[in-house]
Design a protein that fits this description.
The chain is an alpha+beta fold. 37% of the residues lie in helices and 18% in strands. It has 2 domains: 73 residues, Nucleic acid-binding proteins (OB fold (Dihydrolipoamide Acetyltransferase, E2P), Beta Barrel), CATH 2.40.50; 123 residues, no CATH class. It has a 3-stranded antiparallel sheet with strand order 1-2-3. It has a 3-stranded antiparallel sheet with strand order 7-6-8. The chain has a two-stranded antiparallel ribbon with strand order 4-5. It is globular.
Length: 234
């Protein structure tokens, strides 16, 4: 589940990324009763649900989910302030990055398995670096993975590759940061705990990754939850 928008007193417009149909919007009737099939608890950020819906095109109305059930119950994520903050950020980021995304089972599996890994991880450093690795490797599934071959003096964020001359625009990394990229992009979930960053380092990496996505995904917005992450690691 990517995001919800309240519609009247008893309904939500729900944006989801589905395995078989990509991004889809639905209209759900809700109630405050905890154990109801219409409970708000089904529609929390990054919740994983299964349901039935009529997706016939040109019906003129948003489809309504039925027979809703949770197919993965988070164990630790809802109770960890750090993990909850990361989940809110990732939900907002994915809502922006997957705005026009069609059916992409590999991407779906990547997001699903990554969130389950975050739910289970216990190492504080691995937890703190999770969103960085997630965003770096997400770019591969979206077709915007940077070309990190042949490191040179500069890395052009707009072109997504190295260059030997300073670009004419401002979206580039200088030598020290440019040279660190291949090592940084080798970071994956099993090795997250090895990468020890200062608060400033982590914020800088996140800033660069966010800028990279804004350059390569049309109309990528300013993310409100970025400030929450900055506060979290301050």
């Amino acid at each position: 589940m990517l995001r919800t928008v309240k519609y009247g007193d008893t309904s939500l417009i729900i944006d989801l990324f589905t395995e078989s149909h990509g991004r889809q919007s639905f209209m759900a009737t809700i109630t405050r009763a905890k154990h109801s099939v219409r409970s708000m608890s089904f529609w929390q950020p990054l919740s994983m649900v299964e349901f039935s819906a009529d997706l016939r095109p040109n019906s003129g109305k948003l489809p309504r989910p039925s027979d809703v059930r949770t197919y993965y119950n988070y164990i630790d994520l809802p109770f960890s302030p750090v993990k909850t903050s990361l989940a809110l950020f990732l939900a907002e980021f994915l809502a922006a990055a997957l705005r026009e995304e069609k059916e992409n089972p590999s991407l779906y599996q990547y997001v699903e398995s990554s969130l389950q890994w975050l739910d289970m991880v216990e190492h504080p450093v691995a937890m703190a670096n999770f969103h960085l690795a997630f965003l770096m490797h997400l770019s591969r599934f979206l077709g915007i993975y940077p070309n990190l071959e042949y490191p040179d003096l500069y890395f052009d964020l707009l072109a997504g590759c190295y260059c030997d001359r300073q670009p004419s625009h401002t979206h580039y990394l200088r030598y020290a940061e440019a040279q660190a990229l291949p090592t940084l992009f080798r970071m994956d979930y099993p090795t997250l705990h090895i990468f020890r960053f200062s608060r400033q380092d982590r914020q800088r990496i996140l800033h660069v990754l966010n800028e990279y996505y804004r350059l390569h995904i049309p109309n990528f917005p300013e993310l409100k939850s970025l400030e929450v992450l900055h506060e979290l690691y301050s």
